[in-house]
# Entry
Amino acid sequence: MDNYHNNLPQMPEDRDRRVLELYEQVLEIEQRLIPTGLHVFGRASNERECADLLRMVASFDRPEAHARALPTLIAEGLGLDSNLIQQAGVLSEESTRTRERVDGMTREAIMRFLNGDAEQAAKWLETAACVPREEARAVFRLLENIVNQLRVNREMDGLMRALRGEYIQPGPGADIVQNPNILPTGRNTHAVNPYSVPSDLAFARAERMVEMLLARHLAEHGRYPNAMALVLWGLDNIKTQGEGVAQALWLLGVRPVRDALNRVTDVAPIPLAELRRPRIDVVMTVSGIFRDLFGATMGLLDKAVRCVAQLEEPPELNYVRHNISQQMKADASSFDDAALRVFSNASGNYGTNVNFMILDSQWEQDDTLADLFVTRKCFAYGRDAQGRALEGREARGAMNRALAKVEATYQNIDSFEIGITDVDHYFEYLGGVSKAVEKQAQSRPAIYLSDALSRELKVRSLEETVRLETRAKTLNPKWYEGMLKHGFRGVAEIESHITNTFGWSATTGAVDDWIYTEVAETFVLDDEMLSRLRDLNPHSARTLVGRLLEAQGRGFWAAENEVLQRLREILAGLEDQLEGIA
Ligand code: BEZ
Ligand code: MG
# Structure
């Protein structure tokens, strides 16, 4: 796989380390929550489908339910170091073995709970792992509640009530693992109060994530990034109560300040002596949904940048101030212009259109994608020195100048179910902004992502994330067979994953050759699979094969000649079939 082919290890210690790294990667794929099909509106999940979900729910402390994380309870009961199970990336045989053992017992306990009942599972945990019965009961009470609510599904009832214009009960909007109170589904989802963002928990988690992010950049590039571009989405910040917002604040080195009504309306700088690193400049590219939901928060972010820029601090410890004053000297920009950092669409507009241009194969030069992103997103929000709101003033030059300073781009992924190849929005945003930086800074930024929701905080490069998603989903029989059960729509989902992977090639070049090669082998060159796809959905099958050929044509994939030849024949066959010739 990727790194492993190239350099064959020389020394035995080297070899052992590589085997361990490889094993860690396999474990990471195995332990990931993999959706095994689409949600069917109105249909309740069966208990087998619940097992993975319950395991994820049980792997977090739930103070509100007086339940502690099951893996921690098991590790403690067995006398193992429970820190080892939280620190993914700490590479040692001991930590790997501990995590694997605890994970195995967590799975077993959940199966015993689902096949029997809470009491049986708690008893087993007491015997097998010395987990106190009361502690286990608290966890299973929570899981029991979830299973019962998953069994009743009021979605169809809710829809009928909506169509009749009747009242629908409200419920919070979140990821089920983050907040099990979203159950039962079929209610009227409500969002958050923007003045509550970021929550204390989100701010605490963001501190650790930002530390990891900066440590990784430092290790890989020998210094902190001068500036970072962050993608902020509305729904993510609802689900995480503002983790993305909190990350921006931490990079700048400020903390949120609440007013007498407990609303976050101001920021206060964290002293450099406490921060113990430079303040990083941050360019925020904000979705239209975020803009609509979090107007007050956009104001807060703008305030944070302006506040940091005015601190009398040495340039090597305050990149924000340094970049802004450099810009003012370079082209006589005003402070107001040089300090613009919060960008979104023009009022009433949404999205970057970079995805549509790629899906429709309508671009020739990389610059076209970079410019399109900026054209859509160059509307500035915040206030000027007189306190007047900008409300989406066009600021193309200011955005380009801010992007020119960026050395790393980043997005926090908020969901277990929707990853970077499930939808076209991740590549349109994170890929789009990375392409815009590449043009303006004349150098490709480092691109990072993190899981906002996993128990272990982990920062990954885009390349690593694409590999993980490909192994966990696109090329994983558990995932694609789950999709194929949905027939026509399932084939469309498979094709869409491959097209979204192609979107990452187009915007960032972060897709390895082996990914396209294995996609071709799995879905097209395997006669039996090809005929299944063709029978279920010849349109998507044709798009899929066409996309592989386009990947090769655009230089994203160095395919073998025989493979190309075969793909061309298959494409011709599919076209004939669709045109009714074959
Ligand atoms: C958002 O939540 O802001 C968002 C959701 C989907 C696509 C783009 C943005
Ligand atoms: Mg959409």
